Amino acid sequence: MNQTDMQQIVAQFDIKGNVEEIKPLGNGLINTTYKVVTAGDAPDYVLQNVNNAIFPDVEMLMDNIVAVTGHIRKKLEAANTYDIDRKVLTFVPAKDGKYFYFDGDKYWRVMVFIPDTVTKSGVTPESSYIVGETFGDFQAMLADIPVKLGETIKDFHNIEFRLQQLKEAVEADKVGRLAETKYIVDEVMARAENMCRGERLHREGKLPKRVCHCDTKVDNILFDQNDNVLCVIDLDTVMPSFIFSDYGDFLRSAANFVAEDCPEIDKVGFNMEVFKAFTKGYLKTASKFLTPIEIENLPYAATLFPYMQVVRFYADYLNGDTYFKTQYPEHNLVRTKNQLALLESAEKHLPEMEAFIKEQLAK
Ligand code: GN1
Ligand code: MG
Question: Within 89-181, where are the H helices?
Answer without folding.
Answer: 125-142, 159-172
